[in-house]
Amino acid sequence: MSEQQPNIVFIMSDDHASHAMSCYGSRINETPQLDRIANEGMRLDNCFCTNAICTPSRASILTGKYNHKNGVKTLGDDFDGRQMSVQELLKNNSYQTAMIGKWHLGHGGHADPKHFDYWTVFPGQGDYHDPTMIEMGEEKKVKGYATDIVTDKSMKWLDERDTNKPFFLMCHHKAPHRPWDPDEKHLHMYEDIDIPEPETFNDTYEGKAEAVKEATMRIDRDLLERDVKGTPPEGLSEQERKSWLYQRYIKDYLRCVASIDDNVGRLLDYLDEHNLTENTIIIYTSDQGFFLGDHGWYDKRFMYEESLRMPFIIRYPKSIPQGTVSKDFALNVDFAETFLDYAGIDIPEEMQGRSLRPILEQHRPENWQTSMYYRYWEHLSVEHHVGAHYGIRNHDYKLIYYYGEALGASKAIEEYREPEWELFDLNKDPYEMNNVYHEKSYQRVVTKLKEELQQLKERVEDFE
Ligand code: CA
């Protein structure tokens, strides 16, 4: 049995948007090492998270469940490791398991990593330089740069593993999360060039929900001195000042990405050198997307495309055709099921997603998902002040409901807002600039999507 079970290397970064990867057509950077995975495997163009924020997305990946089921609705909720998880099922079925890098699901009690033969993680968000790590419960200071350290420790664990058993390695980078501190090697990258501003950089939010206008994640207003490592020079116009802040922000973000790219290359080389490439499924993803100046923002949380979309590239030479692209919907709640499927382990009934294997092997079932359910719970929390919302996205439209209440979620602020809706016609308006919810010609679409949204809520059993 174990001879046929593939190894799984799951590389996940934090806040890496797909539009900062050249295999996704980035206009702002090159990621040659990440592109190797896409070129030698498959790129998913419609992979989405079900809640665009760190901790909840991580919990969905481990459990194959939506946040109202796994108990991690916001950054304020710790993960209860006593619940079923993919690493437990893999470990119980002959896999060696390791969790290295960013955990961000809480510490102590039942929140520490469980069912990993080896784990070493950053406490909370972790630091970029000389970070503290908690290794199997013991705190240690580690010299170096976080992205290099996570890769080094991953390779060391691979060196020391039992080669008679398959392995499941979660290699989780802290980068490129705020505060975007690059390493020495990439510190001067992009110094002599201007990074292009995104199409929606000067979105005025006209016609959009008040919740959108209220959010505090604007490049021109909300970035801190710590984020951009300085203050704009005197005498700039408002627009020049915004551009200056953007350049400072995006360059450091991309420098952090460049280090990830190098380190993914090191790991790919390691697999090649150790004859592991053929029998290893390797994935690169991020816990959600990110606004890279899009809509004038940084951060995530909203159901808008840049934040909702996860990069997802996967290589498994034995079964995934090279250089392929899929536009079928894939969700973070589908990852656990996919690993189990490839490992030949039964997928528990309580998992809510579906194995992506048929999509990856280009045999899409007739009844494959064509719409997805999203929910952000952290109503108006101090950081970024984004109103709670849920919604539906299909291949043509996105309907978002800002329901205006905290509903008791942790970190959410109990302040009422008038409920609001947004509808975007994704074919005509891929950048989501025009909210057409109130337009007469879209009323049939609205009615239909509201019905579908209700059905999705019932299917995932989210009754709140
Ligand atoms: Ca994140």
How would you describe this structure to a colleague?
The protein is an alpha/beta fold. The chain folds into 2 domains: 7-183 and 247-366, Alkaline Phosphatase, subunit A, CATH 3.40.720.10; 372-459, Arylsulfatase, C-terminal domain, CATH 3.30.1120. Helices cover 27% and strands 17% of the residues. The chain is built from 12 helices and 16 strands. It has helices spanning 32-40, 54-63, 67-70, 86-91, 146-160, 210-214, 225-228, 238-273, 305-308, 335-343, 357-360, 443-459, and strands at residues 7-13, 42-44, 47-48, 96-102, 118-122, 132-135, 138-141, 167-172, 280-286, 312-315, 324-326, 330-331, 371-376, 389-394, 397-402, 420-425. The strands form 3 sheets. It has a 10-stranded mixed β-sheet with strand order 7-6-5-4-8-1-9-10-2-11. The chain has a 4-stranded antiparallel β-sheet with strand order 13-14-15-16, covered by helices on one side. A hairpin with a 2-residue loop joins strand 14 (389-394) and strand 15 (397-402). Helix 1 packs across helix 8 (238-273). The radius of gyration is 21 Å and the shape is globular. The structure holds calcium ion. Calcium ion binds next to loops.
